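Hey, resending since the last one bounced:
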Amino acid sequence: MAIKTILVSQPKPEGKKSPYFDLAEKYGLKIDFRSFIHVDGIDAQEFRAQKIDLSEHTAVILTSKTAVDHFFRISEEMRFAVPDSMKYFCISEAVAYYLQKYVAYRKRKIFFGKQAIVDLVDVLKKHKKEKFLLPCTDILRDKIPSTLDANDLNFTKAILYRTVASDLSDLENVYYDMLVFYSPGGIESLLKNFPDFKQNDTVIAAFGPTTANAIVKNNLRLDLHAPQPNAPSMTGAIENYVKDK
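The structure tokens again:
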């Protein structure tokens, strides 16, 4: 079946440049974007129930821009003045630069990895005396805390936000040739919104092993999976698929 319409379960890329836009133009595709999940921050009362003292921590491990936002939000709500001496360990350079929204970047001790927690391990181990705070969601992947534990790092997991299913009721009678998912939460949202969902001829694409596993576990057909050796990106995998049809 030829692919003509695609729904990507993420927000529309900002700006005019995106591999998705290039893909749509090159192959005459209609590509829409829609967040299947969204984030709700926990309030100060819920945070207090975790019995975490922010002032005891000397460093923060930030795994996403969302984690950055909610760390500073809860700090403000708790009336905790983040000290200038706080050290920031970021999962990627993009997350590190995002800190500029809240701190004078050049005046702070900021470290970053390439994209995964394992890339940060060496620099974290050089700062073993720090007490780390790990702001996270309620569905944090086990790999992050297990990696920190395996390297004997002193850290506290702080749940500051929840990932919840978005309301997709307006899509009930809308059909797409392909659905693209980037997280298990997106699959959960699809099935929560449409418990009687039938895949039929719809092509389902997944990025990452956990997303692919969620599709299979929910008895859906996994038609397209990235990254692959010949397609490290989702758009590259989609292009290969579209060309072959």
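The radius of gyration is 20 Å.

Sorry for the duplicate.
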